[in-house]
Design brief:
The complex is a heterotrimer of chains A (260), B (275) and C (258).
Chain A (H helix, E strand, L loop, with lengths): L1 H32 L8 H13 L2 H33 L1 H14 L8 H8 L4 H24 L3 H9 L4 H39 L4 H10 L3 H29 L11
Chain B lengths: L8 E14 L2 E15 L3 E5 L6 H9 L6 E6 L2 E2 L7 E4 L11 H11 L8 H14 L15 H14 L4 E5 L7 H15 L10 E6 L2 H7 L2 E6 L4 E7 L8 H5 L1 H23 L1
Parallel strand pairs in B: 3-8, 3-9, 6-7, 7-8
Antiparallel strand pairs in B: 1-2, 1-4, 4-5, 9-10
Helix pairs in contact in B: 2-3, 2-4, 3-4, 6-8
Chain C lengths: L1 H27 L8 H13 L2 H33 L1 H14 L4 H12 L3 H25 L3 H9 L4 H42 L7 H11 L4 H29 L6
The chains are: A mainly alpha (260), B alpha/beta (275), C mainly alpha (258).
Amino acid sequence: MESVRNARFGTAVAYVRTMAVFIAFWWAVSVWTSNPALLPSPLAVIEAFVDLVRDLELFMHAGISLGRMLLSLALASLLAVPLGLVMGLSRTFDEVVDPVVELLRPISGIAWIPLALFIFGIGNALPVFIMTYAAFFPIVLGTVAGVRGVDRGLINAARTMGVPRRTIVTRVVLPAALPSLLVAVRLGVASSWTAVVAAELIGAPSGLGYAVEWYRELLMTPQVMSFIAMIGVLGYLSDTALRALAQRFTPWAVDALSAQ
Amino acid sequence: MDGTVSGPVKLKLENVGKRFDVAGVAQTVAVQDFTLDVVQGEFLVIVGPSGCGKTTVLNLLAGLELPTSGTVSLNGSRIVGPGPERGVMFQDYALFPWHTVRGNVEFGLRHGPAGQGLDAAAREERVRSTIELVGLTGAERKYPHQLSGGMRQRVALARLIANEPDVLLMDEPLAALDAQTRIILQEELLRIWGQDRPAAQRRTVVFITHAIDEAVFLADRVAVMTTNPGRLKAIIDVPLPRPRDDATRAQSEFQALNQHIWSLIRDEAYRATVT
Amino acid sequence: MSAWSGRLSRNLMLPFALIVIWQAWGMTTGSPRTPVPTHVVTAALQLVASGDLLAAIAQSLGRVFAGFAIAAAIAIPLGLAMGSSRGVERNVDPLVESFRPIAAIAILPLAILWLGTGTPAAVLIVAYAAFFPMVINTVAGAKRVNPTLLRAAATMGLSRFKVIRTVVVPAALPSIGVGLRISMGVAWTAIVAAELAVGAKAGGGGSGGIGQMMFVFYAYSIELNRIVVCMIAVGIVALVLDRLLRAGLRFSMPWTAR
């Protein structure tokens, strides 16, 4: 495995090198424009970031946003997974429910914000509602696809062994669909994390999206960038965490999303 | 015409070795001490058990790989890379799905050095006559996904021939076809190659296959390889008369050659199924 | 015939039932402000007749197309280069992967800081959003080219650059198409979000487009029925864009066997 380690080292080196070039370029441009509100130097951003970490403000907002996302994910999964399972297994049920799903899906979660603002007002409920809605569709569609995509051969093999229908669903269809399901959850996370920023920017008194906007109004750009970076880091970490989870529970699955 | 082979040497492999290294660490020796002369106009078939390096030899002849030792040459000069004078036919046809039959056949002439010096009309004519030669007139506008396996193989052959190569290198081209289509295409291959023409006017062919009966049916000579590492075990002459057809398969000499070659490979083939 | 009509009735029954329930609920329990299907229809007719709805959609679409085009002009060549050359990929990928988790809407405050609250910022957001699905799918498409096809072209004597042009590009087209479709959806969502956010921050003025119109109906005229009309319009435009793009892609790839 020495060759694999070498390859990983090479990639890490390239990563550091590219980011170093990028930061150097950024620094040069910031010096040239010399307008700290417009483009702060990388050092200013790092300083702001450290300060925000130190007085825990960064973690507070991050925690709030993350908490909302986890709650939304749980709600969305609770609704979407069972629904997707039944839709995937029963053609009749699918024919009844799918039209509603397909009619609502093109209306993005963000388009719901004005109406939701009216219903929920500014507060915690709004982001959670929007994020749940945003996560719902990828999860339900991915679950349906996962169930439908189960290799017919596996089901037939079980049938020829006389396995009853209900057991086939729990012991064949569910495990076979699990990889797709986890991919669907990953997409749901990405979707709701994107929605969190929009929802908090407009309609919440706390959270990373709110913080970004707050500091923008104060023209404190280093802080704005710090929070934006945090949004990116958390988005990346949640996806990585889910991928690790998927690897743990479905080690036989090929990572279908590695190119997405 | 009989199958005895003589004449100028077209392709030469001299003490060729090919070793695959991963990250500087020597890994597999695919081919070792391989020496073989391919005569102008002959149909040479290479057989051997799975993994014996047949494809590596072909890739070396094609210039898709370079030898780690020894030399590979065409007409006396070293082969350093791929080129249209050594046309290759691949096992999975490698047809461009976004081109029609005509688009595929025309490809090498349009974009490659083989088409230099040809104006549009001359190119058109060559494409047309090649498609006719392989028996696909009428299917020019079809896309590969609309064609049967046998038709796709004909297109692959046409694309190759349109570039008028000196040498045809074929890597198990008929392996993906069903047995019946295979038999038909073997005969078609010999017809298109020009089995009733004198050797000086035929193109040289190096053909790889697993199927021994296919090798005996097509070849002037059969080169038998062993595996691990890949070495040349024996070269068998196939003096069966040409043109060859169904009757050839019934001849006792055909059967005898079949048996002989199989006996050379059998043990290794068995071992491949248990290791 | 009866099987088909049975399916159709099953398709329609839930949406129909929901609309009826909504109407009934609105008429009995809600305040006069509550959006109700019949009022939504009236509002829709009004908005269309006055030309406001179509103007807003046109403005948003204009921004989407501009951003989409900019993203494509950068992402597709870049993706092809990255997919064809390990060296290019290694050097560029860190940047792409670092910014990918940062959603376009998070960049909006920065865009407003730099470009103000008008169309340039909106186009920048759309371009940023559309960039990532395009580049990622293009790279995947270029990498996934059947290596035998590349070898076949090499054996016909084509130079490396010619191989990229005549083999990698057409072979990657289906993946590029997928990237374009995803990007279009992302871009449309991004523009609505951006216009909404700007509308909210700029006090209802300045940005234009359907997102801003929705916000005005919420914050100023409090016309919930009109908000619903806008939401439905957002959905319809998303669908139409996707269908059109799909048809266009199918037309440009006549060899795909579907």
